[in-house]
Amino acid sequence: MANFEEKDLINNRRYPLHSPASSSYLNLVSQCQQDLVKNGACMLPGFLTTEATAQIVAEIDRIAPKAYPCNEIHNVFLEEDDISFPEDHPRRLKEKTSLDSLAYDHIEKGDALRTLYEWDQLLHFVAAVLGEEKMYRMADPMAALTVNVMKKGQNHGWHFDESLVTITVMLEKPLEGGEFQYVTDLRGESWNDYESLNDVLSGNEDKVQTLPVEPGTLLLFAGYYQLHRVSPVVGDTTRYVATLCFKDEPGVCNSPKVQKLFYGRTAAV
Ligand SMILES: O=C(O)CCC(=O)C(=O)O
Ligand SMILES: [Fe+2]
């Protein structure tokens, strides 16, 4: 199997991560920052080369049988049920998520996806976009780099992320469904629009937007403030999306409880 060097993984002309002092790099960073502020999302289409995308898909096909089936019932805040709210309050309404998750330790050293995640220039780029002086790869042996595998009928229910910004790379897209959808302006730093949230959770799609995420696209998404979901996958093509976790401090790990929930096991650092 071909071993990809970092510089062959991404579309360098369009995304000059290898030359951080260039004006095109600075323009890219500033464009991403503007998109994040304006839309809560920044999409980099064609970030991976077609060859790298195909390579990563082949690698995931190989390890997909090891993925842990994660079937969860949760509220949109991903918090414990708070019985101080009425039962039909949107804080307490339940969503279903069904996907299979591959963990960092399933992905071998030398695999293209791992090479991408461990590439310092990518870390520096993400830090620049998020305006952080320094960032670190997450220290969790499972959660740092994951792939959500979603087959026919599987979905990711409505939720807000726990971290401010989530970074994903779309690798394989189903023929239909499996769409990344979101709704803005339902949550702020110190407020929630529960009425509109209730509308969305009852099936009103008026404010639902769909992001046209194609294979090879890197997405930075401000998921803490924007409700989002992945609609059920239709058809036989599996959806593969990688999540790359970077933190503003070193040594960050999930608790054993969270590890068990998402990966079916705990792992020491
Ligand atoms: O699969 C995706 O595109 C997004 C998944 C997501 O929202 C999450 O992992 O929090
Ligand atoms: Fe999310």
Task: Describe the model.
The structure is a single chain. With 269 residues, the chain is α+β, with helices and mostly antiparallel strands. It has a single domain (6-263), classed as q2cbj1_9rhob like domain (Jelly Rolls). The chain is built from 7 helices and 15 strands. The strands form 4 sheets. A 7-stranded antiparallel β-sheet has the order 1-11-7-14-5-3-2. Strands 6-12-9-10 form a 4-stranded antiparallel β-sheet, with no helix packed on it. Strands 4-15 form a two-stranded antiparallel sheet. The relative contact order is 0.20. The mean pLDDT is 95. The structure holds 2-oxoglutaric acid (AKG) and fe (ii) ion. Residues 148, 156, 161, 166, 168, 180, 228, 230, 241, 243 line the site of 2-oxoglutaric acid (AKG).
